[in-house]
Amino acid sequence: MTAAASAPSYTGTPIPLSDTPSRLRRLRWAVADACTVAGRDLAHWRRRPGAVIANTLLFPIMIVLMFGYLLGGAMNVPGGGDYREFLLPGMFAMTMVFGIGTTMVAVSSDAARGITDRFRSMPMSASAVVAGRALADMLNSAVALAVLILCGLAIGWEPGRGLGASAAAVGLLLLLRFAFLWIGVYLGLVFHADPEAVTGIRTLEFPIGFLANPFIPIATMPAWLGVIAAWNPLSSTTSAVRELFGNPTGDDGSWIAEHAMLMAVVWPLALIAVFLPLSIHRYRHLGK
Predict the structure, then answer these.
(1) Is residue 79 part of a domain?
(2) Number of domains observed in the structure of the chain
(3) Residue 44 forms part of a structural domain
(4) Is 230 domain-assigned?
(5) Is the pTM of this model over 0.85?
């Protein structure tokens, strides 16, 4: 008798080598399906550029100009520093959080109109639909972040610690967006049958964003409120990005603030570990 050739697996159980090509094919088709879904979403944005420009690009620019010029004169940064340099990294992070609503509305709309059910009836990977949505939204967020950075440079903000540190800061911002994106996907699938709930949940972007440190230093908040704001994942990313860009941080000296760089990685990874599997599970059991 001839023993069948096998290869070790990550679980310790041998995998027949004859199965490897089929697994690679399945992976290749899953990636192709995700790219197809992402292309569909991007095609919709090309046909409706007005909504993308207004919601994704103009709104954060308007907030930067309003806080930077209308309210910035009354703002003081603990430890000194220009308020606009303090503000811009916070706005970069805030824009990543505000993507929750965009993702949630798009996912819930597809599910409510039966488009998601059509995808589920097709011979395609279960993860490809949500992965395609994530890919499209990440591309959209990268463009929005680039536009906002250019806006910041135009009004006098500038990174002060070199290209490598700036690239790391952008990476942390996109990691935060990737984490919150899966929250949006999950909530969109859960509440797709209730448009009013989707609208209500979308308003939570504002307390999440404002109950943090993008606009106001935590050291200026009441102690009890400062603790809540400091442990907001948005605050950790904002503080880490300010440090990497070489901008004023205005931190309060708490443990979470002193370890902002670490927590800017831990928080998003924890959110991804929770909401990515939940999103795929919810998609597979949609309507049950």
Answers:
(1) yes
(2) 1
(3) no
(4) yes
(5) no
The residues near 101 (Cβ < 8 Å, ≥ 6 apart) are: 184, 202, 205
- Which residue, chain included where needed, has tokens 């400091």? 230
How confident is the prediction for the chain on average, in pLDDT?
81
Mean predicted confidence (pLDDT) in 222-234: 91
Residue 137 falls inside a structural domain: yes
Positive or negative: CA dihedral 150, 268, 99, 260: negative
Give the relative orientation of helices 162-190 and 260-284 as an angle to the nearest 10 degrees: 30
Q: Which residue has the tokens 């990515």?
A: 276
Domain that holds residue 234: 51-284
Give the model confidence (pLDDT) of 53-94 as tens digits.
766 677 778 878 887 777 766 677 777 778 888 989 999 998
| b (16+ CB within 10 A) / e for 98-119 | bbbbbbbbbbbebbbeeebeeb
In the beta sheet, which residues pair with residue 6?
16
| β partners of residue 15 | 7
